[in-house]
Amino acid sequence: MRSWLPFFVAVSIAAPTVLAQPLDADTPPEAVADPAEAEDPPPEDPDAAPVAPVPEAPPLGEAPTGSTEPQPTAPPDDRDPIYPPGPIADAPPPPEAPEGSGGFEMPPWSARIDPFNWLLEGRLGVELEVGLLDFLTVELVPTFVVQKKPPTLNLSGAPDVLEQESNGLGPLSGAAVDVGFWLDGTAFHGYVIRVGFATYGYSYNTVDDGGPIDSVDVTERQAFAMFGSQASWGAFTLAGGIGLGVELNRQQRCFADGTTAVSQVQTDGCDDALEIATDRATIDPVDLNGGLFPVTLIGRFSLGVLFD
Questions:
Q1: Kindly report the CA angle at 73 between 67 and 76, in degrees rounded to 5?
Q2: Is residue 116 within a helix (H) or strand (E), and if so which, with residue range?
Q3: Whole-angstrom Cα distance, residue 197 to residue 263?
Q4: What is the pTM of this model?
Q5: Most buried residue among 124, 160, 190, 242 by CB atoms closer than 10 A?
């Protein structure tokens, strides 16, 4: 044991000196082996399957190449420019409000004129009607005096001296208001029963070559009922009807037998007559009320437009 001790002491003193010596200048640096490259890589197996490259992840919000499925997108945030908003689907339309749940809806309405009474009686009625319910309408008919001497005014055979004028607002003599009940259940289509009230003001005058003969102002107030019908083609419509009215204002005026002056007229005991003189000397009166008074025959034939 003592014989090996001097050997180990000599080796421990000489080892640092040998390791500290530099490389020879003629030895290239490549000659020094790198411990990491000391081992050769294993040879490639020709029968091994090639390794597919890993695809790069697409940007957020874009679908991969060849894919048709929509990809999830990040919620838009205008405050963060790093994540721009992706495509946003169109918002669904708001649900439709149920019918009649709110808002104003224009009801069906019609406007017509009555050329029948315009030509025969010189009175133009403008019929304005609106639907309130499926089977119910309300009608307003203002009447305008447009002829002083219409054909029906002198049917009694009296001299052509009788004239009519409006005793209202200008040519407007008055108006009628009625309610229509449509028997088929649909307003403005089919048959209708009308019930209403009318008021008119007229001035009747007799005038000859010598000037005025007589004059009388008449106020008519009638309750009436009519049966009629209406048909339409697109916006164009035709309506008509007949009915009876009852005069509520029984105004009287007459001349006694043997009267020779217009000033001798009387306003009672006239048996519902409403007379006006047509001759200065003989009076020759004409009854404006007619033979059916207080009943009045009503007729209409009108044309116009309908919007329903």
A1: 150
A2: helix 115-121
A3: 34
A4: 0.66
A5: 124
